[in-house]
Design brief:
The chain is mainly alpha-helical and 273 residues long. It folds into 4 domains: 102 residues, no CATH class; 54 residues, no CATH class; 35 residues, no CATH class; 64 residues, Arc Repressor Mutant, subunit A. Helices cover 46% and strands 9% of the residues. The protein is built from 12 helices and 8 strands. The chain has a 3-stranded antiparallel β-sheet. Strands 7-6-8 form a 3-stranded antiparallel β-sheet, covered by helices on one side. α2 runs antiparallel to α3.
Length: 273
């Protein structure tokens, strides 16, 4: 059976969308990496096993498409606490591992290590290929890979949760660079006086100041927020994770955009001064 037949059978027998009584995952019929839209006509609800099979079929029918192979291996190996991923059989796991080894782990060249460009998920076989395509020196690329700036080793990326991947992609490096320069200027005795645009100044101000009605606080960022939503949107951290920290169900949610230190969260009345 081909992929499109598989999808059509589900559409004909069950319909496009399911209610919330049973666990399901939403799937793009034409993948987004193939310019598939978010319109209802391009979406379908699948059970976890069906979702895995769909991505497996897409990868098998498009063997030269690394992005579809990437999506397939993510379905096979990456676990997300917010999703009840399908548990692979030993045979399915072995098959997925072979695809991963051939495509992404330097199987054909043991000394190679694949790199992913975070803005568009483009995957490079080697650091050298990535440097050439992006006109970046090897030294600069090594530094960027260390801090996950714009690029990451693919094997590190694939082991991140969905929330962590969104977080690392959302970092505003222009603001971070300005803050670092400002702090360096203070240390050198210049008082941190560095010219910047009003937009950048507003972002930096927001990064260091709270607002009226503040009710949560992050000690690592030394920053307060009016709501969990505002903290979540600014640093692209799952709201549920922040809420779990505040309730004492977990210790950390998200990482510091510069130091990568795990972030803890408390209610303002519990802030330790």
């Amino acid at each position: 059976m081909k992929y499109q037949e598989f999808i059509n059978n589900i559409l004909q027998t069950r319909g496009r969308f399911m209610n919330d009584d049973e666990y399901h995952e939403r799937h793009h019929i034409v993948p987004r990496c193939k310019n598939g839209s978010d319109d209802d006509e391009n979406l379908i609800d699948l059970f976890a096993r069906e979702h895995f099979i769909a991505h497996k079929m897409l990868a098998q029918e498009n063997p030269d498409d690394d992005k579809l192979a990437h999506a397939y291996t993510l379905m096979a190996f990456v676990k997300d606490k917010n999703q009840k991923r399908y548990e692979l059989t030993p045979e399915e796991y072995e098959e997925a591992r072979k695809v991963y080894a051939e495509k992404f782990s330097g199987y054909k060249n043991p000394s190679a290590r694949r790199v992913i460009r975070l803005c568009d998920d483009k995957i490079y076989n080697t650091i050298k290929d990535c440097c050439i395509d992006n006109n970046i020196s090897n030294t600069t690329m090594w530094e960027m890979l260390k801090i996950h700036r714009d690029f990451m080793y693919y094997d590190e990326y694939i082991n991140m949760s969905e929330c962590e991947r969104k977080e690392v992609k959302s970092i505003d490096w222009n603001v971070i660079q300005h803050i670092n320069r400002s702090e360096a200027a203070k240390k050198s005795g210049n008082g941190g006086s560095i010219e910047c645009s009003s937009e950048t100044r507003a972002k930096i101000s927001a990064a260091h100041k709270g607002k009226n009605g503040i009710n949560i606080y992050c000690p690592q960022l030394d920053e307060s927020f009016v709501t969990i939503k505002s903290a979540s949107e600014k640093y692209n951290i799952c709201r549920e994770s922040i809420r779990a920290c505040i309730c004492g169900k977990q210790k950390h949610a998200g990482k510091h955009p510069v130091t990568r230190e795990p972030l803890s969260w408390v209610k303002l009345e519990n802030k330790i001064c």
